[in-house]
Amino acid sequence: ADYTGVTWDENDDMSEADGQLFTWEIQGVDMTHIHIMEMGASIPKTYVIDELTPEVLKYHDTFKHYTFYKTY
Questions:
Q1: From first to last of its 72 residues, what are the pLDDT tens digits of the chain?
Q2: Hey, which of 6, 23, 44, 51 would disulfide with 19, CB 3.0 to 4.6 Å?
Q3: What is the Cα–Cα distance from 46 to 43, expressed in whole angstroms?
Q4: Which residues have a Cβ under 8 Å from the Cβ of 57 and sit 6 or more positions away?
Q5: Which helix (H) or strand (E) holds 6?
Q6: Can you say whether the dihedral through the CA atoms of 46, 1, 67, 10 is positive or negative?
Q7: For 26-67, what is the HEC assignment?
């Protein structure tokens, strides 16, 4: 709801507490994550949304497809 999130990779033995903060915005089918680095830099990454419902988010970039399901 506040256009923020946290990302981390459990394959790198990380948890949410170790995660990297980001903000996000959607314009049409484009979703941009702006990753906030420790030293204050911001790095934008843009994806194309394939599906967005209250239960599912699917998007992709040039290299990879991502799918997330809401759990209750």
A1: 899 999 888 888 888 888 889 999 999 999 999 999 888 899 999 999 999 999 999 999 999 999 999 988
A2: 6
A3: 10
A4: 49, 51, 66, 67, 68
A5: strand 4-7
A6: positive
A7: EECCEEEEEEECCCCCEEEEEEEEEEECCCEEEEECCCCEEE
Can you name the residues that pair with 69 across neighbouring β-strands?
56
Quick count: other Cβ atoms within 10 Å of Cβ 22?
Answer: 19
Residues 6+ apart with CB under 8 A from 8: 14, 15, 16, 18, 19, 20
Asked whether 23 and 34 are in contact (CB, 8 A), the reply is yes
The alpha carbons of the chain give a radius of gyration, in whole angstroms, of: 13
List, in sequence order, every residue forming a beta bridge with 10; answer none if it has no partner.
Answer: none
